[in-house]
């Protein structure tokens, strides 16, 4: 699983990638162990179920309320940030966002960027974009640093290198950095830390993401555990924050429950080690902090989801990763199988708006609709319901659907006719009973192979008599009435 | 509400608290309609018959409209909304004829009536009223026995250890795991053994099992392994889809362990006179 997976080269082959991942025993074990631990941590962080449910409800209402007046809040955010001395930029596409970021770096004649963890910058593939233009962009989050070193993409939105265990990281550091092998996690962290400390001091620009953008005060909130976020946003002379337009919330009061939901759902922490509230560049009387602060607000398909009342709920997401931690599919195939920036249940519902359903046609189907994701989502995104909606959009005639980008990717006249046949069978009682009669009487003729089903199961054999038959006979004998 | 939560993740038994927790139950009716479900009809008819026997023993007359077929779930979860709606409408018409309470020996199909029919018919105000009335009078079998019949089971079987599997939609939409646990608790000779990752999906997911056979297969293999390793002698479940998935996989793996429908298990454990009619 060490191939690079740039989002722009998505191939619609989820099943192929899944098969490879499933055959990798080490990978499956890494995910199973890690996800079990994360589920346990989350459960322990919410010991009181009533409190948890009340908080989820509140989180949902805050996000839904913020989205209901998104344009106004974004305007207010821009105004307040500008007053605070932050330069605000708008980007509809990742190309625009990259070009904006590069422009800012160029204006400072920068050549080295140090980056705090940011999924939006992954969306943009900012590292590659800047590298092609001679700007070195180094990841400073430990997990991101590991995957960058191995030329990989993150496999999880919170823990980018969760697919690797300590032994694999040790080998990587040995191969790439010439460090002696060790499975002591603390030593491994020290190796990364030594490299990164130096880079923070040398960097011309620091890039970060944003967890919540607060409109009323013009504040960018960033949670993190490694201090790399604070270093990236304060040590270099320029700080560029990149984020999606859905991250805006009305005021600081809203942030309290949302941060609690985020850190408890993600890692079971009551709060992260660092909570950064960034409200502008260094002021004349201040001793440190960046000289310039920029915010790039990215759309990248979000307005498409926003336009549809049901799909809009996708934008509630606060990127905690709990949905993937609890997903039985993600746990088995890992993040890279999704072939995109956002894996797991949230990836399945958000990527269609970014890349188009035709780029990820298998995503809506890659779920048993077990509902674990929806149950743990801290802002109550009804993920199974949205997956089902995407399935509907997926099988529509592409000429008749404009509702989701790339809709109709799984349109098949043959499958439509199969379901029409199924409909006929199940709406014509006499036909259905004839089918039951034939299937039970000729059960010996039931096929021994039944497509993909018999790859995992013995062939299904109908019973000797259907329930229709048994019930009729029983109710006749016992005076009940088959009405 | 809090008693609904079992919190030791990853083996937590998860519940959607917004659904079903506050459901009010009526007095036991004189008669009900049994909606058999297509999977039980064709593959596990004896479970449907045992459900009828359990209901009759509680003094409830059972109707079985012969026009019934499938609740529409396969098409609905596959994205074929129009086809699902046509089949749903047919069932609605049939079930509305008597207007009797509807008992379903499958949590996911009961959940389809209660939670997904309203979504299917949201754009038809007149039908929606009928759909909401149907949702109101639909009960999953274990729920009906426990909450409406207030059944008291007398165990007549030999001591046994069993594992309980609950379909995810049954758990999420109907709290079937809680009802089934309570019924099993009434059986003195039966010890219910937890199995590893009990609340995790068995990998069925309807058409998911044929659209994503690799992932689904990995899930059911893990599920069967944990069932076998649990030390239980058999598995019971109140959902035909999971039963077909789990038993089919066990048979393919040439394992002797099997699951069976909870209705059959309950009937066999509590029926003193096994000399009844031959199925």
UniProtKB/TrEMBL annotation, chain A:
One of its GO terms (molecular function) is 4 iron, 4 sulfur cluster binding. The keyword 4Fe-4S applies. Residues 307-337 form the 4Fe-4S ferredoxin-type domain. Keywords: 4Fe-4S, Electron transport, Iron, Iron-sulfur, Metal-binding, Repeat, Transport. Pfam families: Fer4_8, LUD_dom, LutB_C. GO terms for biological process: lactate metabolic process. This is Iron-sulfur cluster binding protein. It comes from Marinobacter manganoxydans MnI7-9.
TrEMBL record, chain B:
Residues 16-25 have a biased composition (Basic and acidic residues). Residues 32-114, 162-246 form the Cysteine-rich domain. Residues 1-25 are annotated as: Disordered. Transmembrane segments: none annotated. One of its GO terms (molecular function) is oxidoreductase activity. Signal peptide: none annotated. GO terms for cellular component: cytosol. This is Cysteine-rich domain-containing protein. It comes from Marinobacter manganoxydans MnI7-9.
């Amino acid at each position: 699983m060490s191939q690079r997976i740039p989002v722009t080269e998505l191939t619609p082959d989820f099943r192929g990638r899944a098969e490879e991942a499933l055959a990798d025993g080490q990978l499956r074990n890494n995910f199973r162990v890690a996800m079990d631990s994360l589920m346990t941590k989350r459960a322990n962080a919410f010991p009181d179920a009533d409190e948890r449910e009340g908080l989820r409800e509140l989180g949902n209402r805050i996000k839904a309320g913020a989205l209901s007046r998104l344009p106004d809040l974004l305007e207010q955010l821009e105004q307040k940030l500008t007053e605070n001395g932050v330069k605000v930029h708008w980007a509809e596409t990742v190309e625009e966002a990259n070009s904006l970021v590069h422009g800012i770096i160029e204006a400072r004649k920068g050549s080295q960027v140090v980056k705090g963890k940011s999924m939006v910058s992954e969306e943009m593939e900012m590292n590659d974009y800047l590298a092609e233009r001679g700007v070195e962009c180094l990841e400073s989050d430990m997990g991101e640093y590991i995957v960058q070193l191995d030329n990989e993409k993150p496999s999880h939105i919170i823990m980018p290198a969760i697919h690797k265990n300590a032994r694999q990281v040790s080998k990587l550091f040995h191969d790439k950095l010439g460090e002696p092998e060790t499975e002591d996690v603390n030593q491994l962290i020290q190796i990364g830390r030594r490299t990164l400390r130096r880079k923070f001091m040398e960097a011309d620009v620091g890039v970060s993401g944003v967890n919540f953008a607060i409109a009323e005060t013009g504040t960018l909130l960033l949670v993190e555990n490694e201090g790399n976020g604070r270093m990236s946003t304060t040590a270099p002379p320029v700080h560029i924050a990149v984020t999606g337009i859905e991250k805006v919330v009305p005021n600081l009061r809203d942030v309290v429950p949302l941060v609690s939901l985020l850190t408890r759902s993600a890692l079971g922490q009551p709060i992260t080690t660092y909570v950064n509230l960034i409200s502008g560049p260094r002021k004349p009387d201040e001793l440190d902090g960046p000289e310039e602060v920029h915010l790039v607000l990215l759309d990248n398909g979000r307005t498409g989801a926003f336009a549809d009342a049901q799909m809009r709920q996708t934008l509630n997401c606060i990127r905690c990763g709990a949905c993937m931690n609890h997903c039985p599919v993600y746990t088995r195939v890992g993040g890279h199988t999704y072939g995109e920036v956002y894996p797991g249940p949230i990836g399945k519902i958000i990527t269609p708006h970014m890349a188009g359903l035709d780029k990820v046609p298998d995503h809506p189907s890659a779920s048993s609709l077990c509902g674990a994701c929806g149950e743990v989502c801290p802002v109550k995104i009804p993920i199974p319901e949205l997956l089902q909606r995407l399935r509907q959009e997926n099988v529509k005639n592409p000429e008749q659907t404009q509702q989701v980008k790339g809709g109709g990717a799984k349109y098949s006249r043959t499958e439509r006719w199969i379901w029409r046949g199924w409909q006929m069978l199940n709406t014509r009682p006499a036909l259905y009973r004839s089918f039951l009669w034939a299937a039970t009487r000729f059960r010996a003729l039931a096929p021994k192979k039944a497509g993909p089903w018999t790859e995992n199961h013995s062939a299904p054999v109908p019973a000797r008599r259907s329930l229709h038959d048994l019930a009729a006979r029983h109710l006749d004998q016992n005076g009940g009435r088959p009405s | 509400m809090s008693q609904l939560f079992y919190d030791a993740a990853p083996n937590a038994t998860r519940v959607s608290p917004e659904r079903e927790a506050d459901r009010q139950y009526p007095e036991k009716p004189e008669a009900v309609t049994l909606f058999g479900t297509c999977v039980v009809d064709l593959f596990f008819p004896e479970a449907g018959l045992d459900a009828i026997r359990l209901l009759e023993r509680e003094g409830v007359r059972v109707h079985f409209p012969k026009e019934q077929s499938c609740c529409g779930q396969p098409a609905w979860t596959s994205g074929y909304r129009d086809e699902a709606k046509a089949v749903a409408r047919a069932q609605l018409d049939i079930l509305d004829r008597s207007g009797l309470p509807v008992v379903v020996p499958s949590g996911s199909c009961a959940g389809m009536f209660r939670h997904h029919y309203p979504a299917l018919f949201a754009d038809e105000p007149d039908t929606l009223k009928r759909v909401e009335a149907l949702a109101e009078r639909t009960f999953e079998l274990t729920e009906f026995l426990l909450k409406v019949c207030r059944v008291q089971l007398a165990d007549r079987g030999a001591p046994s250890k069993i594992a309980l599997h609950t379909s995810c939609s049954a758990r999420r939409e109907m709290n079937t795991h809680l009802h089934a646990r309570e019924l099993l608790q009434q059986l003195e000779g039966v010890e219910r053994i937890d199995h590893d990752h009990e609340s995790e999906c068995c990998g069925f997911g309807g058409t998911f099992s044929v659209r994503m056979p690799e992932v689904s297969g990995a899930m059911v293999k893990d599920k069967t392994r944990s069932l076998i390793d649990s030390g239980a002698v058999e598995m019971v479940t109140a959902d035909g889809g999971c039963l077909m998935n789990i038993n089919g996989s066990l048979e393919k793996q040439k394992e002797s362990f099997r699951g069976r429908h909870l209705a059959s298990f309950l009937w066999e454990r509590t029926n003193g006179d096994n000399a009844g009619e031959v199925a």
